[in-house]
Specification:
There is one protein chain. The protein is α+β, with helices and mostly antiparallel strands and about 350 residues long. The chain has 2 domains: about 180 residues, no CATH class; about 130 residues, no CATH class. The protein has 9 helices and 17 strands. The strands form 6 sheets. Strands 1, 2, 3, 5, 6, 9 and 10 form a 7-stranded antiparallel sheet that branches. The chain has a two-stranded antiparallel ribbon with strand order 4-11. Helix 5 crosses helix 8.
């Protein structure tokens, strides 16, 4: 989790970046904005730090050489010498314009912000913030012209609680592409240019990453493999997997196999499935790691166990799979479930 308690705004510059496919061009600012120390300064601090709530972190990358990642290169020069901040902010704006080719990408203000005293994992470091605002909102301003006279005026501006795109590059783990946190509130296909084309990021291999992906393996295995074999086994694995991750502080492969998978044959099939998953997504899944509580809470909603019976019934199972018995009635030529319980509410 990023701690901004003692963080200061050190440098700010704003450029205007248009849509390249529409030849809207860019307008580069030649002056830095001195962070004010009054209410406006507090509002700006909230504006620039509020987007970074997620505990899912990323890293900058490049398929052949990390130094060829433009954002990595420009950010590194700023971290090495903050006097290059104006020049490198212009390079970042030009790079953003170069990848803004989708016709639906909106022009907007591009902010480059330099922070000091950010804290991540008990380490204090500087950081570079990259932001873009594309949408304006209407607002009313009530002004008092005289002692007993008010006027209503209309204007447009930026909602300080809604920033369209945000990225924070923390000056640590440089050899691995820095630690990066992002936010993209447009959620449209054309908006992937922010993370995929402009920043070019990959998930950081940490406890959140391991927890999220191990749970994803469990869910996919249950849905794609066990659902074809035994619906009750599918439900039991989902229920036991999310229960294990919710109750344990650390993940242990052997313990997980004993408490969740149980059957040796299922363990082997699951291991083969997990290895194929790791190859498909080019990742390493560890045998031991600290479980991220945040990742568990986020992924938990995807572990709803629902038994769909024809078009008539849905059974929602939250646990107690040993109290569900499946059978077949030869007289009706239909399958059935028996549900055993103590109390009805």
């Amino acid at each position: 989790m990023i701690n901004f308690a003692n963080t200061n705004l050190h440098k700010i510059v704003v450029h205007k970046v248009g849509n390249k496919s529409k030849e809207e061009g860019i307008r580069l600012s030649k002056n830095e904005i001195v962070p004010p120390g009054d209410l406006l300064g507090d509002l700006l601090m909230t504006f620039f730090t509020k987007p970074f709530k997620s505990e899912q972190f990323y890293r900058l990358w490049h398929e052949s050489d990390i130094s060829l990642n433009e954002v990595y290169s420009f950010a590194g020069k700023i971290f090495e010498n903050s006097d290059t901040f104006p020049e490198q902010s212009e390079n970042l704006a030009r790079h953003l314009y170069a990848v803004s080719e989708h016709p639906n990408i909106k022009s907007g203000e591009f902010y480059v912000v330099y922070f000091d005293n950010c804290m991540i994992d008990d380490e204090v470091c500087t950081a570079l913030g990259l932001f873009k605002t594309e949408h304006k909102e209407n607002y009313l301003n009530i002004s008092e012209k005289h002692a007993d006279s008010f006027e209503i005026e209309h204007n447009t501006g930026i909602n300080i609680n809604k920033i369209d795109k945000a990225c924070l590059i923390l000056n640590t783990e440089r050899e691995n592409g820095y630690i990066v946190n992002i936010a993209d509130n447009t959620n449209k296909n054309e908006a992937t240019y922010w993370g995929d084309e402009f920043l070019k990021i990959k998930p950081r291999d940490d406890n959140y990453f391991q927890t999220k992906n191990y749970l994803d393996v469990c869910k996919k295995f249950a849905d794609e493999v066990l659902s074809e074999v035994d619906k009750q086994e599918q439900i039991a694995l989902k229920t036991n997997a999310i229960k294990y991750f919710a109750q344990q502080d650390t993940f242990d492969k052997t313990e997980f196999a004993e408490r969740v998978l149980r059957d040796p044959e299922t363990v082997q099939v699951f291991d083969d499935f997990k290895q194929q998953y790791a190859r498909d997504y080019d990742m390493n899944l560890s045998d031991e790691f600290e479980i991220s509580e945040t990742a568990v809470k986020k992924e938990k909603s995807g572990f709803k166990s629902i038994v769909k019976l024809d078009k008539n019934f849905h059974i929602y199972v939250h646990g107690g799979t040993n109290n569900i018995v499946k059978g077949f009635d030869p007289e009706r030529n239909l399958s059935f479930y028996q549900l055993f319980f103590e109390n009805e509410t």
